[in-house]
Design goal:
The structure holds 2 protein chains of 2 kinds. Chain A is built from 14 helices and 12 strands. In chain A, strand 2 and strand 3 form a beta hairpin. The two termini of chain A are 30 Å apart. The mean pLDDT of chain A is 86. By secondary structure, chain B is an alpha/beta fold. Chain B has a single domain, classed as P-loop containing nucleotide triphosphate hydrolases (Rossmann fold). Helix content of chain B is 38%, strand content 27%. Chain B is built from 10 helices and 10 strands. The C terminus of chain B is likely disordered. Classes of the chains: A alpha+beta, B alpha/beta. The structure holds adenosine-5'-diphosphate and magnesium ion. Adenosine-5'-diphosphate binds next to strand 1, strand 2 and helix 1 of chain B.
Chain lengths: 449, 274
Amino acid sequence: MRFLDLLGMSVSNLKRRKMRTFLTVLGVIIGTASVVIMVSLGIGLNGLMMEQYSSYGDMTMVTVNSNTYYGGGQDVDESQFLTDDTMKQIAVLDHVTNVSPVLRADVVLKQGLYYCSQSITGVSRDYLEKIPLGQGELAAADDNELKFYYGNRVIMWFSNEKTGAGYGDNEELPPVDFMGKPMFVIFDTNAYWQTRGNNTESSVKPPKKYLIGTGGVVEGTFRDYNNYSYDIYCDAELLKQQLKTIFRKNPIPGQPTNRKGKPYPYFVYSQLMVFVDDMENVTDVQKQLSDMGYQTNSQMEWIEQAQQTYGMVQLVLGGIGAVSLFVAAIGIANTMMMSIYERTKEIGVIKVLGCDMRNIRNMFLLESGFIGFMGGVVGLCISYGVGYAMNHFLSLGQMMMGVDGDISRIPFWLAGGAIVFAILVGMLAGFFPSLRAMHLSPLAAIRNE
Amino acid sequence: MVDRGNPIIQVKNLYKIYRVGDTRVHALDGVDFTVYKGEFCAIVGPSGSGKSTLLNMLAGLEKPTKGQIVIDKIHIEDMTENQLVEFRRKRVGFIFQSYNLLQTMNAVENVALPLSFRGVPKKKRNEIAVRYLKLVGLEKQMKHMANAMSGGQQQRVGIARALAVNPKIIFADEPTGNLDSKTTLEILKLMRQVVREQNQTLVMVTHDNNLAAYADRQFHIVDGKIVRIVEKAEADRMSGGTAADERMVGGTLDMTAELPEEAVETAEFSASPR
Ligand SMILES: Nc1ncnc2c1ncn2[C@@H]1O[C@H](COP(=O)(O)OP(=O)(O)O)[C@@H](O)[C@H]1O
Ligand SMILES: [Mg+2]
C-alpha cells in the first residue's frame, strides 16, 4: 500500500470524529507546550547566566600560574619559571590560539596631589585588543611609545598624598583624570618609599618620574565590574624595554633573582594567559596544562559548576512538563482503543479484502502519530507565543537574574525536537492499540449482528 | 465456459471442530469436493449446517482442523496469517451479506479500496472502479456515499469491489440475505451474468434452495457433510423442465414453492439429530 493512501485513510478516520480528535490533540498541545516552555526557561536561565559571565570577561581564557614562588630566592626551581620559552611550548598545544605573558611590575602613579601604589600588567597585543575600552583607543601596532590602559575601577585606589584620604574614607572619587591630565609613573618603588616624606637622611636619591601617556580607560563607570576593572595594562614588550632602560643590570622589583641576588638574563612572568579556540575546549586545554605541571584557572570552572546546577533545574522543569505530555499520551492511547473498538468490523473488512497486517498497524500508528504531530505543531506555536510574552511584556529575565535578555529561548533543536518527540509520543501511545488492531480477526467482518 | 479439466478449488477430507466448553462442535465433518474454473457454485443447507465455516476456510479466513484446501494449485491450510492476507489480496474477491462498504468513502473509493492494498496508484484504480461500477449499473451513483444508497445499490458496489481486483475466485456469503425478493433476483442475475462475462469462478453460500438453483452446481450440506451435489441441468429437470430463474421471473419469489425432492430432504434433515 502506498504511503499517501495510508495517510489518507488515517486522516479521514481522524476527520470522522472531529470532536474526539480535537480533544485528544488538545491534550498533546498542552503537553508539548508545557515541555517546550519549561525547557525554554531552563535554556534561557542558562543563557542569561552565560551572558552574565561573559560580560565579566573572556570565557575562552585560561590563566596559567607558576608552581614556583620566586620572591624568596631560596628554593627557586628555574625550570618552573614562566618565560618566553614556556609560551612557545604552550602555543603549540591543541586548541590554543594565543598565549599572552602577564608581566607584573610595581609602580607608583602620581597625578597632582593624588597617588596610588599599584602593579601594572604587561600583556601581548592580542590581549590588549580584547580589552573593552570606554575612552581612548588602542595604540597602533607600530607605535613604540609605552602607554597605559586603566581599569574603570583603578581610580578608586588613588588617595591624597598629604591627608591620605581616598575613596574608602569619604566616598568621594579623587579628582584624577586619566585622559585629560598627565600621569607620572615611578618604576623604582623601593627608592620611592625610602625617600618618601621628608626622609632627608636617606642616602638614596629620589627616583625618577616618567610621564607615561594614557592609551585609554576600560568601559563602564567605577561601579561597573568586569575582568579588566582593577588592572592597569600595557604592552609587555614596550614595558620590558622601559624596565631595561631604567634598571639596566640592576634587579627589577618583582623579578626573581638567583642565589647570589643577581637578576636572570630573561624576564619571568607571573602568569600566562592562554586563549582557547572554543569554550568547549577550555577544560581540555586546562587538563593538558596541568599535566605539564602548571596551575590553571578559567571562568569555565565556575561556569561548569553553574551549568550543572542549571542542568538540574532544566531537568526538573522538563520533568514537570513531561508529566502533562504523559497524560496526553494516555489520552491518545485511550482514543485509539475507542477507535479500534468502533472500527472492529471495518478492520475485519479491509483484512478480508487483502489489506496487509503491517498496513493496518501502520495506519493506526500514523493516526496516533498524526495526533501527536498536530498537537506538537500547535503546542510549539503556543510556546513561542507564551515565550514572547514572558520576554517582552513581563521581562522575567530582569526580575529573576538582574540581566537584560530573553528568559524563554526556543532554539531550533528544541522546536524540531518537540515536534519529533510529540510524534513519537503519539506513535508510542498508539503502538499497543495498533498491534491489537493488526491481530483482530477478519471474521468480525463476516459475522452479522 | 466451465473448464472441467481445470480445477480451481480442491477440498480433501476437510474438518473443522470448534471447542465450546467441554463439547466439540463438528462444524465440518469430512468434506471433499472440487470446483472448476469458470463455475458458479452454490453451497446450500439449513442454518448452522456449516456453510459459512466452509466458505471462510476456502477464503483463508479460518484455519481447518484437518484436511487440505488447494486453491489455484496452492495449499492454503498451513499458511500463516500474513501469507493468507497476501493470498486473499492476490486471488480472492469477497461479497458480504451486509455489504460492508466503508462508510467514509463513496462508491468509487469503496471499489478502488482493495486495489489500493495492492499499491495501484489512485488515478489508475479509480478508472478501474468506474469501469466496474458501470458494469454493475451504477453510472449515476458513482459519488454517492455508502449510506446514501439502497441495499441493492450497496450490494452492487460490493460486487464491483469483489470484481475490481480481477480475482481467481469470488466468494459470497448470503449475498442477498439482507435484500427484498425483487432486489435479490436482480443481484443474483447480475452476479451470474457478470461472472460469466468475466469468466470468473463464483462460490456462493445460501440457505435458500431457489437461489441455489441459479448456480451451475449446488453442494447440499447438512451437519457439516456434503449430502448431495446437484448439476444445473439436473436441477432444471427436477423442477419440471422449467429453469429455476424462469420460475422466479414473475417477481414474487415463492419461498414455499420448493422442489418436491428438496422438500423431502428438508423434512429428513430436520428429523435428524444435530
Ligand atoms: N467460532 C465458533 N465457535 C464455536 N462454534 C461455532 C463457531 N462458528 C460456527 N460454529 C458452529 O459451527 C456450526 C456451523 O456454523 P456456520 O458455518 O456458521 O453455519 P451456517 O453458516 O451454515 O449457518 C454451527 O453449529 C455453529 O454453532
Ligand atoms: Mg452462515
